[in-house]
Amino acid sequence: MKQNEAGDVIYRKNYTAYPWNVKHLDLHFDIGAETTTVHAQMEFQQKNDDHGPQDIVLNGSDLQLVSLKLNDRILGKDDYIVDGEQLTIRDAPAKSVLKTEVLIHPAANTALEGLYLSGEFLLTQCEAQGFRKITWFPDRPDVMTTYRVTLEADKSEFPVLLSNGNETNRGDLPDQRHWVSWEDPFPKPAYLFALVAGDLALVQDHFTTRSGRVVTLKIYVEAENLDRCEHAMESLINAMRWDEDRFDLEYDLDVYHIIATNDFNMGAMENKSLNIFNSKYVLARPDTATDVDYQGIEGVIGHEYFHNWTGNRVTCQDWFQLTLKEGLTVFRDEEFSADMQSRAVKRIQVIRDLRIRQFPEDDGPMAHPIRPDQYVEINNFYTATVYQKGAAIIRMYHTLLGESGFQKGMKLYFARHDGQAVSCDDFLAAMEDANNTSLERFARWYSQSGTPQVTVTDHYDATARTYTLTLEQSTPRTSDQLEKQPLVLPFELALLTAAGDELPLQLEGEAGNAATSRLLIVEDARQEYIFTNIPEAPVPSLFRDFSAPVKIYYDYSKQQLATLIKHDSDAYVRWDAAQRMSANAILEQCQRRADGLVMQLDADLVEAFRGVLSDQQADPALLAEAITLPDEDYLADQMKVVDVDGIHAARLFIRKGLAVGLETLFADHYAGLNDGAAYQKSALAMARRSLKNICLSYLLETESGEALATSQIQFSDNMTDTLAAIRGLIFIDSTQADTALSDFERKWIDDTLVMDKWFIMQAIKPGLNTVNKVRDLMQHPAFSIKNPNKVRALIGVFAMLNPTGFHAADGSGYKFHADRVIELDPINPQIAARMAAAFNRWKRYDEGRKVLMKAELQRISSVAMLSGDVTEIVAKALR
Ligand SMILES: [Zn+2]
User: Fold this and answer.
1) In the chain, what are the helix, strand and coil shares in percent, each to the nearest 5?
2) Which of 168, 578, 776, 852 is most buried, most CB within 10 Å of its CB?
3) Is 343 left (phi over 0), alpha (psi -120 to 50) or beta?
4) Does 304 qualify as catalytic in the annotation?
5) What pLDDT, on the 0 to 100 scale, is given for residue 513?
6) Is 460 in contact with 540 (CB distance < 8 Å)?
7) 698 alpha carbon to ligand 1 midpoint, in Å?
8) How far apart are the C-alpha atoms of 820 and 359, rounded to whole Å?
9) pLDDT at 1 (0 to 100)
């Protein structure tokens, strides 16, 4: 079990460089599932030769030490000290060769860090600090070295033996054993080390880089999954080409491996040339994976590939700089997906994700800047803030500097730092120097937590024909930080007439300016802009393309929102206006319900939706986004005290009202889109399916829906349509739902990835009975508490995506969930900590629920031997 016994806080300001260079690392693994022997040989050289003998400090965890030799002398108990996860060798000479032998036990490793067993094969996960579970080594990202790895194993049990870099040699040994050697010429930190050993099947292709290097591409999966790799391979080839075209970056080795595993704590891992993936992000066939899965695979394959430069060739000095590689690489994968699919739809998905996942983080006990100043357990900082907000901040560089300025900065960044472990300051400096500009104030985004709020007010002077726009920004205090400063906000703006035309934007004192969309830079707490020659009171189109990750407050009238929904050329503003109108309507009804009044349907909302649905020109995927009502979590975020049941009831009421009011339109769309054409993977086909299935979800609120859904299941040739229809039937509590679920179960019982969907569909069902259903499903043979995908599908979905179930007023959801956190902690503390975070925002609920949640948090915190991971989350929540 992973323990951070001391629960020590680690501070960014205490960073000191490692005093030794590690010139080279030789690893030899004698592979066995129960016990693996690891021999390591590392050459240490003091950075400062004049220093004289000096201690060497190494990290290790759960290692059974067999022997330790320094310059060929066997070290006795008096020559070194082991203290927790540190081993200190006293007074080592300026040049020292250290040889170690340790035993590790992969099959007993349920934390899925270090070397572990997945099904029939062995694999590693080392980020952030898993390498210390493999052998003693300075396990920190700023210690980079070259690796030579030899893997030795039984030939029939482990025919495939992989590590980073290029294969250099292989041979047979007596007793049906064999060995393979790998060499990675690029120095790397230990967190990028990987090995895989087992009986895996292979899909192979190749890619020729722009400079003519032929790269062999290999995807390894369990044999039964060989027919589900095509999309992953195509995505990899697209990603390699895209990185050349857009970023001028080429791949640098002769081989690139992807391995799919069902047992993985995260999405995927960018180990140099040996990416290890959660099978969810590799395996897809139209009948087993949804369109969302296909898009997820493309995005994650791209993400891990792009890390080869942003993360691997240039890595992080310490873990506080995690966003240096993650924010930048998420930005790159977002851009990749935008270039592959619809840019507008991708952008909306990214913005929605940021609002639902990251904004609440800023508002809770885990608030931290994208570059945190302290942590107890780094695994708890793989957060939406570091990743998604980090990417939003990289996007602002891009907005401020433009594509060519941004690319100049990237070029300088690589020219300066290739092969180094650097900090976010180095990235910022490269952007500054390449563009000959100062980003000093912009740098505050790295150190300030919280979501800035921008309040916009305006005044139109009909006589002077001027329009004054005032922006006031402030960032509310967060749990980690009281003082806040104004931030640099790129502010993209347009002004629309009531008829929907964009006006030329001429600021007071400027000569003629015909631009109708402008980028302004807000830097101060309060800033005023006066536009001249404005013929009528305009409708402001604010922060177009979501040009800064802020909460925008402007008191739009319904009429103004209708204008934006109908006419704005900016897809984000259009979508956001529809979301605002829906959110306002739902929250109004929520309030009426709380006041004991009858809920009423807003006729303007129906008309706005009618307008959207009647737009024949629009991308169907954008229409689908526009008519999707805001999530319950997003609505909860708009309330001072969350009314769980009120939000659910009001959202349902509005949904029903829209369904009945626009039934003909939904039905026409559905009929047109449900044309019986065979499945296609194209972006257009996906867009059509997304609109079709949103229409179906509304129609399910009417008489005709049940029959449509049942027939859709019967004739479906793809998982997207099947799943949408079954979920719809479950949601309306149809009698057909049980049949559909048992048919689904019968068909897919042996398919672990598809069965995750079966669990999700049931865990997400609103209502008080779901907790019992979830508890029963934990006994299902396809469920395992040791498998993170299963835990996320059943337990995670229930706690995070089922507000009426989890927040049941009697506390049954809380109690069930706390029990799971306690059960999971000794098995897999990383996953337990993720689950514990479901309680993070307990203070936002009514008194009754607050008391219940707090009691469960206290119950978790009182468990003996609680991991550092969970302790940090729970302690912060209770503070
Ligand atoms: Zn990443």
Assistant:
1) 45, 20, 35
2) 578
3) alpha
4) yes
5) 72
6) no
7) 37
8) 26
9) 33
